[in-house]
Amino acid sequence: MRRSHISNLLEINLAMLFIGTSGALGRYVDLPVPVTIASRGILAFFVLVLFCKWKGISLRIKPVHRGTVLLSAILMGLHWVTYFYALQWSSVAIGMLSLFTYPVLTAFLEPLLLKTKLQRIHLLLGAMVLVGIYLLSPDLNFQDSNTLAIAIGVFSALCYALRNLVLKSKVTEYHGSALMVYQAGIIGCLLLPAFFYTDFELVLNQWQGLVALAVITTAIGHTLFLMTFKHFSITTVSILSSIQPVYGILIGAIFLNEIPELTTVVGGMLILGSVVIESFRSSKKQHLIPQD
């Protein structure tokens, strides 16, 4: 029996809800960020390997593509680390909304890296994002933690956009879950030395949050997200996924009592509005790249 359209919509919203837990969990886990990300990478690696084995997804990477996968993993690691610093320095709302500048950053980077034509509408969208960022922290004082969080959040978005473009331009024949296996594993290995500077008992005391981050956010959330591409076009998924920061902010409000200010809400609406406009405009099919 064919699934109904409502069931498919519920599935993608469930995926966004699970992925949106990254904000609250990033604030909840009380560990140094490199330790948190190393734990997330290692745990997610094992869960994703089991998933790929269960589904019969090949994990073989051609030698010519291994350098590209390594570079993408380094960019993904920078994205995860800086995103979690943004969460620790500010709030779930500011951290997640800063990250969601990545679609417009991608629109500006793509002509530079993939030699496509820059479109004038992207200048307008870029202006919307800049105004939105300004409203997130109208003081723009770099001695203020919120301003620093926005700056590093936008850098995290830049790393994520570059990672997606690197994979899009070089690697097109691999399953998204297989790529995530290598990225999670490489990130975990690169950050493994962070455990040498942390009391392992503290890590064990945070096991619930770490497991939730690795399993709910990374493994289950992204697996559900991958499955939605069977039912929607890439453009439609991009539009629907802009609900993710809304879920993340609601989770932060419920479990962490973080209520965003009015200026943050307005700034977020401008940022997410630019994402929706760009998603509507985009009709070109592109290879599936899993996100944060």
Automatic annotation (TrEMBL):
It comes from the Bacteria. The chain crosses the membrane at residues 12-29, 35-52, 64-86, 92-109, 121-137, 149-167, 179-197, 209-229, 236-256, 262-280. InterPro entries: EamA_dom, EmrE-like. SUPFAM superfamilies: Multidrug resistance efflux transporter EmrE (SSF103481). The keyword Transmembrane helix applies. Residues 14-137, 149-277 form the EamA domain. It holds the Pfam family EamA. Keywords: Membrane, Transmembrane, Transmembrane helix. This is DMT family transporter.
